[in-house]
Amino acid sequence: MMDLVGAFSNSDRPAVRRLTAGLLLVLISMLACQGLTPQFLIAATASPTPTLTLTPSPSPTTTSTPTSTSTLTPTSVPSLTSSPTLVQTQFVCNGSGITNPSSDPNILFQDDFSSSTSGWDQVRDAAGITDYDQGGYRILVLQSNFDYWANPSLCFGDVSVEVKATKIGGPDDNDFGILCRYQDVSNFYLLIASSDGYWGIAKVVDGDQELIGMSSMEQTSAIDLGNPTQLLRADCVGSTLTLYINGQLVGSVQDTTFAFGDVGLIAGTFDIAGTDMLFDDFTVRQP
After folding, report:
1. Superfamily covering domain 2-285
2. pLDDT for residue 63
3. 165-187: buried (b, 16+ CB within 10 Å) or exposed (e) per residue?
4. pLDDT digits (tens, 9 = 90+) for 119-157
5. Which of 195, 204, 217, 175 is CA-nearest to residue 83?
6. How is the chain split into domains, by residue range?
7. What is the pTM of this model?
8. How far apart are CA 247 and CA 259, in angstroms?
């Protein structure tokens, strides 16, 4: 198993909810389409509208939080900027996918997390949890300005990924979502939402992170603010990336950077620690 650690920080909450990322490598090894399970951590400083910026972390064991002078303002919209970090790994993937036996031929992979041997990370430490728990997959972040994400070490081309995400603790000012076409710690797409009503679609390329087709994360009425459970769906089809929340289309962007890769889950904190998300019914379909 390969564990990777990084840090996102957000600032300028009043006008921009910024997401700044710094990536820190615990162990870099060759990633294949299956077998190795990457896990890494990102730290984030919340502002009402995040911009995404990458800053390098000095050592694989550091747990320091990026500095930020921002304060938390609940009414804001995120935007992203980026700066590079050099982390080189290789991901071997031809987009053929790894199928899971199912009565539905369109289902490429399905996991209700009832078995702890389905390939996801199992990490519990002072900073939080990414592990099977309570009949689902739990991501608990015990530090402010940090995100955790995890992957099942699979490989796909075009996919439609759906998951049920339930906030079981922590602030509404959080982030959670789906990764697709994940190749390594420095190259992937993320489609995210927050419990206080924001969404965004971003990419990380050679460590540089930026929102795609939008200057900042945007508010949406699709998030049910009175319900801890949200149904997310991320379609990564050709050059089109689309996010649905609770069955409603919230946004679609165009990008041709990545064609294949792994899928995954992400959750994290801004200024207030304690984001606790339980994911269930994770399904990857052929679009």
Report:
1. Exo-inulinase; domain 1 (2.60.120.560)
2. 36
3. bbbeebbebbbbbbbbbbbbbbb
4. 999 999 999 999 999 999 999 999 998 889 999 999 999
5. 204
6. 2-285
7. 0.71
8. 25
